[in-house]
Amino acid sequence: MWINSVIKVGIVGGTGYTGVELLRLLVGHPDVEISVISSRSEEGRPVAELFPNLRGVLELCFSAPTAESLAACDLVFFATPHGVAQEMVPQLLDRGIRVIDLSADFRIRDIALWEQWYKQPHGCPERVNGAVYGLPEVNREQIGAAQLVACPGCYPTSVQLGFLPLLEADVIDAGDLVANSASGVSGAGKQANVDNLLAEASDSFKAYGAPGHRHLPEMAQGLADIYGKPVKLTFVPHLLPIIRGIHSTLYANLTDTRVDVQALFEKRFANEPFVDVMPAGSHPQTRSVRGSNMCRIGVVRPAGGDKVVVMVVEDNLVKGASGQAVQNMNIMFGLPETRGLEAPALLP
Amino acid sequence: MWINSVIKVGIVGGTGYTGVELLRLLVGHPDVEISVISSRSEEGRPVAELFPNLRGVLELCFSAPTAESLAACDLVFFATPHGVAQEMVPQLLDRGIRVIDLSADFRIRDIALWEQWYKQPHGCPERVNGAVYGLPEVNREQIGAAQLVACPGCYPTSVQLGFLPLLEADVIDAGDLVANSASGVSGAGKQANVDNLLAEASDSFKAYGAPGHRHLPEMAQGLADIYGKPVKLTFVPHLLPIIRGIHSTLYANLTDTRVDVQALFEKRFANEPFVDVMPAGSHPQTRSVRGSNMCRIGVVRPAGGDKVVVMVVEDNLVKGASGQAVQNMNIMFGLPETRGLEAPALLP
Amino acid sequence: MWINSVIKVGIVGGTGYTGVELLRLLVGHPDVEISVISSRSEEGRPVAELFPNLRGVLELCFSAPTAESLAACDLVFFATPHGVAQEMVPQLLDRGIRVIDLSADFRIRDIALWEQWYKQPHGCPERVNGAVYGLPEVNREQIGAAQLVACPGCYPTSVQLGFLPLLEADVIDAGDLVANSASGVSGAGKQANVDNLLAEASDSFKAYGAPGHRHLPEMAQGLADIYGKPVKLTFVPHLLPIIRGIHSTLYANLTDTRVDVQALFEKRFANEPFVDVMPAGSHPQTRSVRGSNMCRIGVVRPAGGDKVVVMVVEDNLVKGASGQAVQNMNIMFGLPETRGLEAPALLP
Amino acid sequence: MWINSVIKVGIVGGTGYTGVELLRLLVGHPDVEISVISSRSEEGRPVAELFPNLRGVLELCFSAPTAESLAACDLVFFATPHGVAQEMVPQLLDRGIRVIDLSADFRIRDIALWEQWYKQPHGCPERVNGAVYGLPEVNREQIGAAQLVACPGCYPTSVQLGFLPLLEADVIDAGDLVANSASGVSGAGKQANVDNLLAEASDSFKAYGAPGHRHLPEMAQGLADIYGKPVKLTFVPHLLPIIRGIHSTLYANLTDTRVDVQALFEKRFANEPFVDVMPAGSHPQTRSVRGSNMCRIGVVRPAGGDKVVVMVVEDNLVKGASGQAVQNMNIMFGLPETRGLEAPALLP
Predict the structure, then answer these.
(1) Among B175-179, B226-230, C65-69, which stretch is predicted with the lowest mean pLDDT?
(2) A147: pLDDT strictly greater than 60
(3) What confidence tens digit (pLDDT) does each residue in D200-230 have?
(4) Which of A1, A84, B304, C96 is deepest in the core (most CB within 10 A)?
(5) Contacts of residue B204 in chain D, CB cutoff 8 Å?
């Protein structure tokens, strides 16, 4: 049970989109004090100079990321590219500091698999098994007790939540799952990249990574954990000409066609504060979750047949990253799970 | 001084964009209870069915707009097209209910001028002089005591705030002001209109209303009030292929070139919670105020000459409409002016 | 064989997007004279007033649609909503005028099925069997001899071309096909509709019609014609915040995993002027066909497994509608198939 | 007079947006053969690999840019950043090859001014005076005879065409001109740059370069050439979240209010194939010129006063760059001025 009045928080890697989104959410969180925000490249620069939306609400400057500067924190978020958290996390854990890693470093238990997809040796394999996969709808209890939480990827969050009730109820053929997902460009991060220029990516649409994408092994692991057995998943991501938002359209074959899929979803998520099962026949829109931690789901059986189609939307920077991280923080520190995450989506 | 614990609020006309934006802001306001939300066309329908971002946070249904149903309110907002508030406001005022009208009905003191631009007889001319023009940066004190506040238009807010320091300091030629403004399409409201279809308005840009626009007399009146004498203004609005945001680029000739315009603006707005003068040389972006009540201003003298260029950004639905209405409410009820309006802009 | 020097063309229903696109393509076609363009609602109005891109290149005014005014045409295009062509086509055919119908009126041979999906009695069932389905890659020969061509729908063109090589070669399980498609908003036509406002549809993404869409029976019929047996298809369309472009992501299970899918596609379309099989590993982008009649296809076997993923892009207004209509016209009149359709896509 | 059947054309710097746009226009030009296209960074790579819209229509590979490889050309276009043409142009001119430079290298006659704005020594000042400024509406005759044409910048084209009739007729105060311009992001080129990412630039709007922009001296020179005396211009460019299109809103004070500005514009441009004066009261849209070489202009006197507002739209990559270059080529080689530039804009 958390008894201090305020959680002292540090953020490593605050210059990207998940970093600024963490800041946006945390400046409004009544139980948090942002103590440190680090960036090697922007050391000394006021955060609000880089992110003008924070002018007047955050006075902090970026500092160099060191274990010493983070020593006084109760919790450190890593909003860094993969490979960074691996290096610093052990020192923090050893000092008793809790960690939520938004990168991929501690998500995959099979180290060889991680090394294959991320094409580098893992820097801290001994801590991977102790990490809790931070999907509250699956692992709420372990998250509460965790010292290290591996926050799920944006696509994996949507795909796992969408298949969750069907796999738990064992009513679909887990040997042939299809996830057709589409993400706004903020998912690619704030990197100078010709492909993501407005002149290249707007007024257009394309798939990418169809032969294989790094989020696939994370999804496969998570779905297998839910199902209790391996699953077979085809995953094709697409690039949307929007800033925020993930839409996953999931396809599976029902093995039991008597199931009422609408009721199944409503029951499974009845007590989940951040999963909203839409009324039967609804098609969720990404804008209905823009800026919010909500995940909205619609489920349909076209022509009442044996194919079930699940449509899942989330804001990739919120429920797909920083919002879920805050949700995990709330759970870890015994706070109401929705604290600081109550604001409705910005619509229109 | 407001001593009740909660302000009971009614909203007339809750189906448009300023309506849903009021709702978004008010559901998170700790001192407000939304008692009634009315819509003739959607009577009986749950609000959250029309606006899925409010699912789970607002249980209310639309009701028919009647003075009786609004009788228990402390404050009623009108988020209606022009011509509607004129009909209902007198009955509410007579019952002692305070009113904030977001429409144009009570903004212009010259009734003939109003009737010329809005092409209909004014339904309530006797209440116009008692209305306070709700631009807090100019009329804060009167707003506090007002029973009826006429909330400024979206373009006029940006144009008046941008010229304010220059006119007050009497350093520009008020006989030749140019306001070149551009607004996102939400300014056109949630009306089915071919011109505002995504297929028509996106990936394009155009001016409109160059020969004359309804916001011109409101601006002219407001600028003259500030200056103490009539001004001459050319105003050309443009339609931006974005959802939210107004950018006004203002041009004037300095009559006193010794003035330090940066210092002038910084000093004038030093204590304003919702006007942010950017550092010298900055160009404010509309996204830096998306979803926020902030107005950001940059001011430049190109090549150090006698032309001054002021760039003003605001979210047309927030500082340009519903946020400013909430700011006015806070002032009217003696609350901290920023209450319920603290959330930073959504960026990216 | 066509021996006149110029094809006299009429267009019924020229005020929508397929109408203006036909005009854009035909004004540059060296063998065509646009004789008549009709619209009941815009009778007498210069076409270029409605479509400013045609100022200076098309002097025509809209006229009322009558069989008499069309009597001098060699060919009449119907760019009308469904239900209109049914009424007028018989009179034109009886006069020996050839017809290309871009609407759904003559696409589906099963009249009862048509009536079920379009919710009205079919006005001309006796002409349906004589109509040729205008997908040149499948029916080129019959199109050449046809008096009435039913031009395929936008989604069905992409889905049929994508599954074509696989079904012809009989290497997939035709009992479980999935088509996950996404279209730009111009596919919804130039109708005033709140859902398609820029403020509603931009910066967002959603599925629609998941329980069932009118293009499904057309696809099922076309795929069955190709395969020689019925197929089972799940089709989920999505709305993209772009103007033009369809992207279909197709999923099927290979029954013969020894097949080289890349070679299969390259061979099948080697002589097709408007189907471009991209190099192995490519992901086609909708912008690469913007304004062009080209359909580009990429094909992938994720992780070399038994799932085949086909990605198909087309411009919904060109290869998905008006360009394909011109291609059909070229075939019907013995012209080179690419005449008037040579311009590359507009990129960026 | 040009008597060869085909113009052999070389393009130096073919990897940017003006390069690909030149290619798009030239592959459809009946009198042109593209002989060489060079790029140092992409040497050996097929052009169509970089620009998928050219797959199947252009077989060329990029080659290294050398005077030798260009020796057989009749005409060489430079679509390079400033500073490159200066180095190579003299060698080409010495060989009798004609040159159209799309960069800024030969636009400004005052070398010191050029060096001040472009912050580098000019590499070829001795050729600057021999260059003809390629704005056909002003310099058609000299362009026909020119060996070196300096193609105007995108903003300067729109601003000069808009002020042209007013300055020539001497009816405005040339001492106080305002040009408020907005450009699509393709104007920034195909450079990896965080500011132009879709996640940064879309759904937003901002001014830039308000203190001073490189196109200002070019405009000032061109307007002074037209007027016969120096003018004073304030120019503020803005960044639009669209791909293509420039919209300039020009403001000036009439010195003679009896002038019929609509008639003045119509008369001045009556014989110009690429300037379209819209009917009185029209507001031109950038999409009406998307992909076309047309410049459309609307002119208004708000409330019939002494301020004149001119609205000018062009496609920054066509009339603002590559289309105007082709127009210049047509003039230089005695071809009909519209050859290869007839295609209407892509709308919607």
Answers:
(1) C65-69
(2) yes
(3) 999 999 999 999 999 999 999 999 999 999 9
(4) A84
(5) 242, 245, 285-287, 290
Query: b vs e for D136-172, b when ≥16 Cβ sit within 10 Å of the residue's Cβ?
Result: bbbbeeebeebbbbbbbbbbbbbbbbbbbbbbeeebb
Q: Which of A210, A240, A286 sits opposite C300 (nearest CB)?
A: A210
> Residues B242-275: pLDDT tens digits?
999 999 999 999 999 999 999 999 999 999 999 9
Q: What angle do CA D230, D232, D236 make, to 5 degrees?
A: 140
pLDDT of residue A4: 63
Burial B194-213 (b: 16+ CB within 10 A, else e): eebbbbbbbbbbbbbbbeeb
D 146-205 near A (Cβ less than 8 A)? 184-186, 188, 190-194, 196-203
Which residue in the set A55, A202, A288 is minimally distant from B276, CB to CB? A55
B89 residue type, one letter: V
Nearest-angstrom CA–CA distance, C173 and A341: 46
3-class DSSP assignment, residue C345 = coil
The model's pTM is 0.97
Other residues' Cβ atoms within 10 Å of the Cβ of residue A313: 32
Tell me how far apart the alpha carbons of residues C47 and C49 are, in angstroms, rounded to a whole number: 5
Residues 296-315 on D with a CB inside 8 Å of B are 298, 300-303, 305, 307, 309, 311, 313
Q: How does strand C295-300 pair with strand C275-277?
A: parallel
Residues in chain A: 348
**Among D112, D105, D120, D134, CA closest to D92:** D105
Residues A189-245: pLDDT tens digits?
A: 999 999 999 999 999 999 999 999 999 999 999 999 999 999 999 999 999 999 999
Nearest CA-CA distance, residue D199 and chain B, Å? 6
Predicted confidence at residue B3, as pLDDT, reads 59
- DSSP H or E run through B166: helix B154-168
The DSSP call for residue D188 is G
Distance from CA of C241 to the nearest CA of B (A): 7
Domains defined along chain C, listed by start: 7-130 (3.40.50.720), 155-315 (3.30.360.10)
- Residues of A whose CB is below 8 A from B348: 17, 20, 186, 190, 243-244
Round to whole Å and give the CA distance between B109 and B86. 14
User: CB–CB of A278 and B52 under 8 A?
Assistant: yes
Length of chain B: 348
**Dist CA A59 CA A57 (whole Å):** 7
Contact B103, B114 (CB under 8 A): no
How close does chain D come to A345, measured CA to CA in Å?
A: 16
Residues of A in contact with B337 (CB under 8 A): none
